[in-house]
Amino acid sequence: MGAATAAAIETVMQGRFVPQLVQAKRRRKDPSNPDQGTFRVRWMPALIDPEVLAGLVASVPGAAMLGSREQDKEKFTLAALADLTDAIVGSAAGQLETPAPPPR
What we know:
104 residues, alpha+beta, two-stranded antiparallel ribbon, 3 helices, flat
């Protein structure tokens, strides 16, 4: 997991990530607005070096995938990189201080 984290950090440092709009799952349906949904941005890695990915895939132990729905090592590794990238970028974005908008 350390190598995957390092790869995700390098991906973020080089700016190789893109936003993906995903719809949040609704727990309760609102009968007054059946077509309304909630969305959020999920940050995904982009332009992953094939050699780095191959090394990460080769290093995944089978036991790491026991609790996962995904049983293909490459898809499992890509999902882990996506989760790590989203966590890193989301954490960094939460630390940004933005100025207040000008009064109207």
